[in-house]
Design a protein that fits this description.
With 239 residues, the protein is α+β, with helices and mostly antiparallel strands. It contains 7 helices and 14 strands. The strands form 3 sheets. Strands 1, 2, 3, 4, 7, 10, 11, 12, 13 and 14 form a 10-stranded mixed sheet that branches. Strands 5-6 form a two-stranded antiparallel sheet.
Length: 239
């Protein structure tokens, strides 16, 4: 029986669960899970677990890494490019060094406000469902850690940023808070997850590859055994 970790490349568009449902149509397994949701508009690494390997997800590293594009001067209700535009403001004349300096203030242990359009729960309902019903809920700030934050490039109004962060970090929140700090507003316009749960983007297999291989797909070639996935943990041999 197939069992292990399957690193997938999620394209922009479908939800993380949509991707798993698509996989489940190709392989006969009892369960599929993943180690962290990617927003539909985001792309990149989605670490999934096949069948009896789903409990392994709880023991994988929780930190993640992203390449983000932040667009200054425009805010939206979802804090990303898919939402309705709320405000548009002129972008101040900023050098790359000045933008990098403002970014530095978000590194380390910080208090971050989750977006109203998110998968967090409130009284038994997802925040995005409440927001779509016109009843947005603003959750209180919570502690997250930004281990590394680097400005890759800045060409107004867009900043490309690499970040390494703890589980529970919202890059949309980082974009919104950077825009507020600069006084012009901002939103997340593009996001790629480059690392997650101890795996990197280079480890991921695309849905197109799996679909092209069809019924003859050698799934064992793509699935990583639980022992390999947990190699970062101390091990004890017992006779």
């Amino acid at each position: 029986m197939l069992c292990g970790i399957l690193p997938l490349y999620k394209p922009a568009g479908p939800s993380s669960n949509d991707v798993l449902r698509r996989i489940s149509r190709w392989i006969n397994v009892r369960s599929l899970g993943h180690s962290g949701t990617l927003d539909p508009a985001a792309e990149g690494l989605l670490v999934s677990a096949v069948d009896r390997a789903t409990p392994v997800l709880a023991f994988l590293p929780g930190d993640k890494a992203y390449r983000a594009r932040i667009t200054l001067g425009r805010t939206t209700d979802t804090w990303d490019a898919k939402g309705q535009v709320l405000t548009e403001n002129p972008v101040p004349a900023l050098s790359e060094a000045e933008v990098a300096h403002h970014l530095e203030s978000f590194a380390g242990v910080i208090q971050q406000t989750p977006p109203p359009f998110s998968a967090l729960w409130h009284e038994g309902k997802r925040l995005y469902d409440l927001a779509r019903q016109g009843r947005p809920v603003q959750k209180p700030p919570r502690e997250v850690t930004i281990y590394q934050l680097r400005l890759v490039s800045y060409r107004a109004p867009e900043a490309e940023v690499d970040l390494h962060c703890s589980a529970g970090t919202y890059v949309r929140s980082l974009a919104m808070e950077l825009g507020a700090a600069l006084g012009c507003g901002a939103h997340l316009s593009h996001l790629v997850r480059t690392a997650c749960s101890g795996f990197a983007l280079k480890d991921a297999v695309t849905l197109e590859t799996l679909e092209a291989e069809g019924p003859s797909c050698d799934w064992l070639r793509h699935v990583i055994s639980p022992a390999q996935a947990l190699a970062h943990l101390p091990a004890v041999e017992v006779n």
